[in-house]
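[Meeting: bench + compute handoff]

Bench side (C.D.) handed over the final construct sequence. Compute side (W.E.) agreed to return the predicted structure before the next meeting so the bench team could plan truncations. Sequence as handed over:
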Amino acid sequence: MTVYRTPDVHFRQLEDWPYAPLFTQAMLMPFGQVRTAHYEDGPAEGPVVLLLHGEPTWAYLYRGMMPILATAGARVIAPDLFGFGQSDKPLHGDHLSYELLVGWLIEWFDAMDLADVTLFCQDWGGLLGLRLVAARPQRFARVVASNTLLPDGEIPPTEAFLRWRGYSQRVEIFDCGGIVHQATVRGISAGARAAYNAPFPDERSKAAARRLPILVPIAPSDASAHPNRLAWDRLARFDRPFLTLFGDSDPVTAPYARVFQQRIPGAEGQPHAIIRQAGHFIQEDAGEELARRTLAFMGLDGGA
């Protein structure tokens, strides 16, 4: 099954994006050999901070956080999920599943041979990243969860999510940059909107972006609800530091900060925060504050 690879020309001269991609190759059935892009900043020997984006974004979302983390001495690694950014993309969403994406991420993570990792995850970065933590808990030193969830169908979805899910399936032109702009408090520049649209020259290339909203389990019988319940069983024993940093203006994920705080042992006593004037794409509204709080959580200079 063929995949789409966005031509490099689409990523030239993007606003505030100095990073060149690094590529790895892996077999991902039924798509065959696929290429994954990731970006790095900071010293190679520094403590690893893994930044996982959601949808319909790509690692560009972290452009405001990466240099701050790197300057403080962290080795920052931000991959593009399969289907996004400079990673390969399916042209049809029918064969794309939650479990396939989890398997892809675990295989990529193992190939990178990362350890003692601080994870920062938002949106689908959490839906996938928390599955990764459940599968490889010994590799993670701490976790920062921001505007995300690990849905198992037991907690009803928010009305805002259901509206987004419906919109994602019926809208004729899936404007990724416009979606990010609308889901922030402060808005984003025209250049940033263009950068979010850069990976997707046509509607076919957006198959993953359209598909992911309907892969979120919203009922106990949904396909990935049971695997997520198993992951929750493992996370209920995760006693390493776990921090929540949620935006005060995100109606999609607002209830879930408390869920993490109550269910994960490592969340007890941590400096959880609600970030003021921050929407769903919290990195756009408060990237610098998120970076400073993450550094403080890690005990690195530069933290707030």
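W.E. noted at the follow-up: Residues 97 and 215 are 7 Å apart (CA to CA). C.D. will use this when planning the next construct.
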